[in-house]
Amino acid sequence: MYTYQDYLEAAQALRERIDPFVPDCLLILGTGVGALAERVEGAVVVPYGEVPHQRVSTNKSHAGNFVFGRLGGRNVMVMQGRLHIYEGYTAEEVAFPVRVARLLGCGDLIVTNAAGAVNYNYRVGDIMLISDQIRLFDPDPLIGPNIEAFGGRWCDMSDVYTEGHRQAARRVASALGMQLREGVYFYFTGPQFETPAEIRAARILGADAIGMSTVPEVIAAAHCGYRILGFSLLTNMAAGMVKRAYVPGEVTETAERVKERFCNLVTGCLEALDKGPQTEAGGM
Ligand code: HPA
Questions:
Q1: CA of 236 to the centre of ligand 1 (A)
Q2: Domain extent at residue 72
Q3: Global pTM?
Q4: Which end of the chain has the smaller Cβ count within 10 Å, N or C?
Q5: Residue 41 falls within a domain, yes or no?
């Protein structure tokens, strides 16, 4: 279990690398938008392994760097590659950098992922704006002693994906001539893909997309008061929805095909988001 001191130490180590730069928006890049990190201007790159208490990515398709700089007119902190519970990390470890970023000054979070489509109206290659999320049984980053400096014990989850940010995303997509789906992200830890029965169950419970990430980070982010925007890139139809079984490589192939559009959407959103009340660096 992390202590508040661990978060402070990580934030201090990063501050020493970026001073006087103060990030105000954290971007967590999943499969398909990793290339966005290359668009960051004046980038300062800090590998996860150089930050105290920060775990490293074991997943080959996730680079494992914090990238600080300017993107879409904002001071961003980009996570180029994220951690997953299926790598053997706890939900608290997966969410660690979200809290560190909050201490550094980030008040907005844009989170992206690759996901399977559960809604029959969706198509491979579609992008879904996340309206809400479902976590039923899988680990939760807030379990354990509550760190009051981040938020209260009983975290409100009734408006996690900020409505104002979603409106901005709809406007940006429409200006780019892109169709944007909007729906509920359902979380399983993986690493195995779901069974057709699990996908049917998730659909009955309200899922539009299914994936193995995002939810731990978003719970921690809601707890410490971020305004949150999330996108899923639908890289495949979920198990049982199409005749053929899941084809290895399908997720990365679709992500490769759609990445330009996806990167443009996220950059457009950075420009369009209402910044809201500014938080001071480490001013929690
Ligand atoms: N299931 C879970 N996670 C995923 C999927 C899926 O079908 N596609 C991409 N990530």
A1: 7
A2: 4-277
A3: 0.95
A4: N
A5: yes
